[in-house]
Amino acid sequence: MPIQNEPLLSSGPKPLGHFTLGVLAFVVGVLSGFGAVAFRALVDLSHNLFFLGTCSFTPLMDQPPQSVWGIGIILAPVVGAVIVSFIVTSFAPEARGSGVPQVMKAIYYHEGRIRPLVAIFKALASSITIGSGGSAGREGPIMQIGASLGSALGQVPSMTASQRISLIAAGAAGGIAATFNAPIAGVCFAVELLLPSITATTLLPVAISTTIATLIGRYYFGLHPTFYIPALEGAPTVYTGPYQLAVYLMFGLALGLLCSVFVRSIYWVTRKTEGISGNYYLRHCSAMLLVGIVLYLVHLWQGRFYVQGVGYAAIEDVLRGGLTSPWLLLVLVVVKLVVTALTLGSGASGGIFSPCIFLGAMSGGALGFFLQALFPDAGFQPTIFAMAGIAGMVGGATGALLTSIIIVFEMTQNLDFVQPAILTVAAAYTVRKTFSYENVYTHGMKQQGTPLAEGLESGFVLSFRARDFMTDEFFLAPIDSLVTTWPPNKRLAIIIDNGLVRGVLHYAPTLVENCKDLSFASLDGEHSVSVDADASVAEVQQRMASGSARIALVTKRKRNRSSDVIIGVVDDQQLMSLRGRVAQLQ
């Protein structure tokens, strides 16, 4: 057996006080708020360069006019793909994709550690993808930028991994809150998708960060909601009849199928492109060439680049009655689905949130305008269908049900959408879960061998600390003492030599019987590692794995002592017992 020469004082980082954590959360809110502002400015600059040939940060509030490049606009996504491929392969592989799975992986597999440079390269890569015409969202990148800033700040002072994870969630939530003017949705996003356990301590940084980031976002983007819908001001809304609610329910069921197709299409393209011979540059550029061709054909047909970038201008057209043809909206759903799968599936850098909003708005608008034309006196309002579609598509595809409902209200400041949104989201999520169990974020992670715990398994287990599931069935055995001194009801002996742990022995009757005349010095104990009493389950398991040990000694600093003392032991039996407790509750 290997010999361990480790002092008893081997504790992990000490948790920060609530005041210090609150101050750090305030700083994270400032960073994520300004990060969202800077990223949106980069997207506007990139879009103006690629489509208009001008160096301007002025955002285009309407559909972009005819590109100065003519048919050459087909190559804009390809040029963007070359630059993005260079950034991803040379500097930050984490910048590839939507950003949310990368943050989840950092939380559950890397103790909340994200390289600080990821924020810079993610901003550059995603702004180029979106600005050059790729079909992707800006919310995922903004979230990853905020999360990486939170992680960077969380790696400066010494703190526990759970506190660093709270700062990551605070940064991500701050980014969402700033870009949507939606602080409540930002908190809900962190709760539903990022935080392993929900307590007042973990929510404190998130609440502070979203508040500060929202204030910064409102200062730069204005107090108005994301989607302003003047047609509903003062207009009565009639949708609460049983037949109308039944329509929303059926719409949600159909939307669930679209969510499943959306999730599977992205990863189907990923598998197909990775199977093509050639490097990442060739595969990504080939897919983006197809995207460029589609953009040109759509513009040739309609005079607008409806499906490029985030697509918010097209969504505004639907909500304000500028796009009313159900058939055109359905065509845009199909085309947007294809170009999004090509963009993100081939390895672009960009989010999934905006494409979900686009698909939901177009689907809901198509159904709403169709029913309005078919039953003009029934009171069907296409705008409400579009917003319910947004909630259903976001909630169904991402699994963030509460976030999708809350964000519909905060994006419009209108409560008329909430009841239809709840029905639509519930139905869409149920159907998507039936046909595609994993959501759009976790599907790829499972394929890569990094699955995430769900529900009780993530919240209940990860809320435990080492002190909660350790055993005290141990004793400290001086190295020169006899094995026969083994006390009853103690199944572990920790061999001590001049204040150092030499090894750990498991009790066995044959061991005591055969070695009754021997001292512990003649036996080789099992290798162990030390963990702090406040270490989480994930931290304990990772410490044991990295140290190639099956035993962890739980230590705690006692008052008026300069060294830590062993207060418990964690081994396979404790971990199996913990899993059993979870299984009984599921």
TrEMBL record:
It is found in: Membrane. One of its GO terms (cellular component) is chloride channel complex. The keyword RNA-binding does not apply. The keyword Cell division does not apply. It is a multi-pass membrane protein. The chain crosses the membrane at residues 21-43, 68-93, 114-133, 165-191, 203-221, 245-269, 281-301, 327-345, 352-372, 384-409. Keywords: Chloride, Chloride channel, Ion channel, Ion transport, Membrane, Transmembrane, Transmembrane helix, Transport. CDD domains: Voltage_gated_ClC. GO terms for molecular function: chloride channel activity. This is H(+)/Cl(-) exchange transporter ClcA. It comes from Kolteria novifilia. The lineage of its organism: Bacteria, Pseudomonadati, Planctomycetota, Planctomycetia, Kolteriales. The gene is clcA_1.
